[in-house]
Amino acid sequence: MPTGKAIGLLGLADVTPYQEKSDEEYMNDAQMNHFRLILKAWRNQLRLEVDRTVHHMKEEAANFPDPVDRAAQEEEFSLELRARDRERKLIKKIEKTLKRIEEDDFGFCDTCGIEIGIRRLEARPTADMCIDCKTMAEIKEKQLQG
Predict the structure, then answer these.
(1) Residue 109 annotated as binding?
(2) Which of 4, 23, 111, 119 gets the highest tally of CB atoms within 10 A of its CB?
(3) What is the span of the domain harbouring residue 70?
(4) Which tens digit of pLDDT belongs to each residue from 2-20?
(5) In a domain, 126, yes or no
């Protein structure tokens, strides 16, 4: 049952999808503020996860006499640390994107320079390529791997 609340990153930032006006300039102050809110909320949520992991590992760390129990705990911690490492990289990307907003260089494709689009940026605020350039980059990457 829909509640009318936005889900995903929009829900995390407690914002609704941006409603563009017909005569509105792309990446105006209102749009920049919209994405700034989303990115900051996302960054804060990731930082909370890091804090939770540190707390969990301090509280749950035990020297189990049974090697199987010890191995299970080590594997659990390893998986958590791997997830936090991915999140750490994502936080860096969010910081880079926030800097692009401050420099007024946000919302345009790094490769071809066209508008990335509001909906794509709401789905992935750290996107730095339009969908066409990203698709081509992924195809090239697959060809180089294959």
Answers:
(1) yes
(2) 111
(3) 8-107
(4) 444 556 888 888 888 999 9
(5) no
